[in-house]
Design a protein that fits this description.
This protein has about 450 residues and is mainly beta. It is about 0% helix and about 55% strand. The protein contains one helix and 19 strands. It has one helix at about 15-20; strands spanning about 30-45, 60-65, 70, 95-105, 110-120, 155-165, 170-190, 200-220, 225-230, 235-250, 255-270, 270-280, 285-290, 310-325, 325-335, 355-365, 370-390, 405, 430-445. A 14-stranded antiparallel β-barrel has the order 1-4-5-6-7-8-9-12-13-14-15-16-17-19. Strands 3-2-18 form a three-stranded antiparallel sheet, with no helix packed on it. It starts with 14 loop residues before the first helix and ends with a strand.
């Protein structure tokens, strides 16, 4: 396995996904991998003063208007004491995967087919949506790592072809399969006042969606090549439709209502990578510069960030040294975060990432069959970030309990004076952590 430089290194085991054109320069092979990963994450929420809490008077409140009138509250926060403990969610997790990679020539030195299948062991797929603002108070009342967590409980199934029109040029095209899910929850309630008695008939449809990607590799000479890849935007979409029907009474008759929600999982932006590879005697060098168009990001709720994300440039380098005991490798990568400063209502959690990888590959034969054993260790350090919310921000945290009057007495409610919010990220937070990963791969040639 060649960490961080899959698009550039001609020996990359998952070339069918990272750079399909590299298939054209590889041997026929099948790889079997086990991958382990541990996310050791931390989110520290800054202490709140008791004056920020919302009490039970919110249930009697109507927002006070300057002219002396009142209206129903725009937001409907719960009393703070009703919520889960703030920040009680633990974002750390342990993950296991099994993977198969394939390189099968169809026309020797002309046309090659490849595939990659990587499956999480614990769950085939996990979808755990969350809100990134005060709405999350109703659910976990915590912050979440936007680009991790359930995104790492998804399968990867990709297939690709490489064509060599010239001995020094390889062109590749691939397709990665994602899922489109449509769920309809049809519910009938005989008595709208008795919500424990109802009938439900859910329907779920799952269809594959195909996202293409492309690659080209130019071999200047043996041991020296350049490559370029382009992966188009991809994601999994889940559409949820609720169709609720109620039997009201003889006078009011039958009532029906519904709502449609579209959620987005595993969003990956358009990505372009330029890589170079050079071999000199026992030494190999590979480098990759990557561009990621995160400005088009949509979160799990299908929403665009209030403050647009940043497009990013990443840099990865890798070196191998061949000895009689095998090939030893060292790799490094820097991946900046696309998430801007979080001084407003949003609470996105993501950091710049510094990565280090060690690898070892040993080729051997068993009964005349060429094999290779590859081991890989990685550590990804997520740099600490610290945010203090700014109430002067254009998208600042809401005052969820504005000055209000009692709906029964018409008197000003003292608890509504000042600023109150249940936004779990207020008045600020910090985060950081690390990812430990390792893999073992057996390649059969």
């Amino acid at each position: 396995m060649v960490p961080f430089n899959g698009p550039a290194h001609p020996d990359a085991p998952f070339a069918a996904y990272h750079n399909p054109s590299q298939l054209g320069f590889q041997k026929k092979q099948t790889g079997f991998s086990y991958i382990f990963m541990y996310h050791n994450f931390d989110i520290s929420l800054k202490n709140r003063s008791a004056g920020l809490d919302i009490d039970e008077s919110i249930f009697r409140a109507r927002e006070y208007l300057p002219g002396g009138g009142s209206r129903a509250l725009t937001l409907h926060p719960l009393p703070t004491s009703y919520l889960k403990s703030r920040g009680s969610f633990n974002p750390s997790q342990q993950l296991h995967y099994m993977a198969i990679s394939l390189n099968q020539p169809l026309i020797p030195e002309k046309l090659v087919m490849g595939a990659v299948i990587m499956l999480p062991v614990t769950y085939m797929q996990q979808q755990s949506p969350f809100f990134i603002d005060e709405r999350e108070q109703y659910f976990s009342n915590s912050l979440h790592y936007e680009l991790y967590e359930d995104r790492y409980q998804m399968q990867t199934i990709a297939g690709a072809f490489a064509f060599r029109p010239h001995p020094s040029i390889s062109l590749g095209v691939g397709m990665v399969m994602n899922m489109y899910t449509q769920a309809v929850s049809a519910l009938y309630m005989p008595d709208a006042t008795d919500q424990d008695n109802f009938y439900i008939a859910p329907q779920v449809k799952i269809a594959p969606t195909i996202n293409p990607y492309f690659g080209t590799t130019f071999r200047v000479r043996k041991g020296w090549s350049h490559s370029l890849t382009l992966h188009l935007e991809e994601s999994m979409t889940t559409e949820m439709n609720t169709d609720m029907s109620f039997f009201m009474s003889e006078d009011s008759g039958f009532s029906s209502e519904g709502k449609k929600i579209s959620m987005v999982y595993g969003f990956l932006p358009l990505r372009a990578d330029f890589g170079s590879y050079f071999k000199y005697r026992k030494l190999e060098f590979a480098s990759t510069i990557g561009y990621q168009q995160w400005s088009s990001y949509r979160n799990r709720m299908g929403e665009e960030p209030y403050e647009p994300w940043l497009n990013t440039l990443s840099l990865a380098i890798h070196a191998n040294y061949k000895t009689s005991l095998g090939r030893f490798g060292l790799g490094m990568k820097y991946q900046p975060t696309p998430v801007p400063e979080q001084e407003g209502r949003e609470n996105y959690v993501d950091s710049d990432r510094l990565s280090l990888a060690l690898s070892w590959k040993y080729n051997f034969t068993v009964y005349g069959r060429a094999l290779a054993l590859t081991m890989n260790l990685q550590y990804h350090h997520l740099l600490e970030r610290n945010f203090i919310k700014n109430l002067n921000n254009a998208n600042s945290v809401y005052d969820e309990y504005p000055l209000s009057v009692d709906s029964e007495t018409g008197e000003i409610i003292p608890a509504s004076e000042g600023f109150q919010t249940n936004n779990p990220g207020y008045p600020g937070y910090s985060h950081g952590g690390g990812i430990f990963a390792g893999s073992v791969m057996l390649t059969v040639y």
